[in-house]
Design goal:
CATH superfamily: Vaccinia Virus protein VP39
Helix content: 25-40%
Number of helices: 7
Low-confidence stretches: none
Structural class: alpha/beta
Number of strands: 9
Order of helices and strands: HEHEHEHEHHEEEHEE
CATH topology: Rossmann fold
Bound molecules: S-adenosylmethionine
Largest sheet: 7 strands, mixed
């Protein structure tokens, strides 16, 4: 199950975190699964703000197109890296974050256009992807954590636990949050998945 589906499934259990006027952050805008649409809809229903962030012009343009369907001035797309944009974010108003940015390498092959898009900014995705992905998701997580005033939820896509070690996009961000007292809301898969029955995502609640 993709991370956004895990998040939608867990919505009944995180209602107390979804507060009117607060902000939802998405790292990695809509590309193939349509997460931005689901988050925009949720933000409309709960009167929350959305900021979806992606350095790729294509994903940014897709996000703009999705958001334009909602006629809601509280929904924003930003063309930047998640970690770069969030470094200067000091509003202290984040209640939910969906982290599905910098791609990882698995048995599921990437489109050549994805590999080329990283190459165009000097990144060898196949060689350095997994290490860099964990690094930038940790960076973004630290900024998100700082901007949670009292309580918030972070959902990581492409993150699982193998032999007691966290893997994927949240490989270092999840242990960081757990050390800060974060609590798992959903149970992670115990290995990389070949079938859709495995959870691709994991949810962590932060209570300060
Ligand atoms: C798996 S896709 C996101 C899919 C999207 N969430 C959906 O459901 O359709 C990963 C996205 O992360 C973006 N990305 C790469 N590096 C990033 C970074 N440093 N910060 C934020 N997004 C990044 C890529 O451009 C790509 O659009």
């Amino acid at each position: 199950m993709h991370g956004i589906k895990v998040l939608l499934k867990e919505l009944p259990n995180i209602q107390e975190y979804l507060v009117e006027g607060k902000t939802v952050i998405e790292i990695g805008s809509t590309r193939d699964i349509g997460s931005t649409f689901h988050l925009a809809k949720l933000c409309g229903e709960k009167k929350m703000n959305l900021i979806t962030i992606d350095p790729s012009k294509d994903s940014y343009n897709s996000a703009l197109e999705v958001l334009s369907q909602f006629n809601n001035s509280n929904l924003h797309a930003v063309n930047d890296t998640g970690e770069g944009f969030l470094k200067g974010y000091v509003k202290n108003d984040i209640c939910l974050a969906y982290l599905d940015g910098f791609d990882i390498i698995t048995t599921h092959p990437h489109a050549q256009s994805t590999i080329d898009s990283y190459k165009s900014v000097g990144i060898d995705l196949l060689k350095d992807g997994n290490r860099l992905s964990a690094e930038v998701h940790l960076d973004a997580t630290k900024s998100i954590y700082k901007n949670i005033k009292t309580k918030g939820v972070l959902c990581f896509d492409d993150t699982w636990e193998e032999n007691g070690k966290w893997m994927g996009k949240g490989a270092t961000a999840v242990p960081y949050l757990l050390e800060k007292g974060g609590e798992l809301i959903s149970s992670p898969s115990k290995k990389w998945w070949k079938k859709r029955k495995f959870n691709h995502g994991v949810l962590i609640a932060v209570n300060k």
